[in-house]
Amino acid sequence: MTRPLIISCALVGAELTREIYPPLPLTPTEIGIAAEETVKAGATIIHLHVRDKDGNPTQSLEVFREASEQILNRCDCILQYSTGGAVGTPLAKRCEPLELKPEMATLSMGTMNFGAEIYENSEETITSIASRIREHGIMPELEIFDYGMLESVDRFLAGNIIPKHFHIDFVLGIPGGMAATARNMVLLVDRLKENQSWSVAALGRYQLPLTTQAITMGGHIRVGIEDNIYYRRGELTTSNSQLVARMVRIAGELERPVATLDEARGILGL
Ligand code: KMH
Ligand code: ZN
To answer: Within 6 Å (CB) of ligand 1, which residues are found?
Structure first.
């Protein structure tokens, strides 16, 4: 039987602004409404960043709590908190929302250039975030931005630093990270252990082709405006749910069933 497809939606991100993308959901209520629409469209995981009252990225536990309540009051889904935050967020702040014990949280697997900035994920940082994730019994999604980060997973596993059970997400196309090409995705997937669950998130115009490729390869996908604000060249997407709905249609054409929430939890071992 074909493995059902888990669709994750990255609703907000930390870098995007209303100047660049006017419909960007910012308040906890707007985030709750956007989540409900995407879950109705077929998403089962909500990858969550939140914003403060001025629309700036924040890792405030209170704002994560409010946004989570707004989401879960409207729909059932797996909440996946970002521990990446925005470039430059101090380590303690990055971990703050983990106290709320979401089902999943991200764990970026290495330092990299992130456009003109540096996204810091030293061994010390990874170890510290991983220990908080473990302490709260949260399932990590390892964010792999480059091939070397995937190789380091083995080292962190051998050192018992990261939990043995995780999901892997390849984030391709960040300037400074691995390019979002079909070949790169095959290279990364080929290095995975058998039965490892994985997904792909690709930036901008690469989101559509690489997520489609992942569907054909048996992987899972992440879409959403954190990674891509366009529906097609020159046309902004109207919403996160429009991006999800397109992938549901493509999965249907490719005869890959979309996972229900129970199926998603089963596949991920949550
Ligand atoms: N905003 C990026 C610097 C994550 O969510 O864990 C980090 C990021 C990864 O978005
Ligand atoms: Zn993120």
So the answer is: 14-15, 82-84, 86-87, 106, 108, 114, 119, 143
